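target protein:
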Amino acid sequence: MNVSRNISQTQASIIAFTTSVLTLLTTFGFASLLRVAQPAGARPASVAPAHEVALTGDAQQGRHLFLMNCAHCHGDDARGDEGPDLHGLRKTNQRIHQIITAGIKGEMPSFAKKLNDSDIQALTSYLRTLHS
């Protein structure tokens, strides 16, 4: 009788462990699906909405650089998130260059080591296509 009781306890432990693992896998599986799924009407970051100007040359490269370096704070559409909305900027190209290279203390990091002058010129060209 004692042997069958040990087997039952072992089986119960295996069932409990298996159930726990399956529950965790299911939970994380659904979480990853929710994270990947986009809400209705959402568009991938690489697809420009119909109201945006078709980008060419520097501005197209600038958009790519923006998405890789700036969108996490300014949003994919540059309408602002943690960082401000960048549509309709009223800053000179020189001031934009200065802000990107030096950053803003406590608000925005410097990109001087990551972006060269031609990258910043391309970014500025892209920013100039953004209108309010």
Notes: Residues 15 and 59 are 59 Å apart (CA to CA).
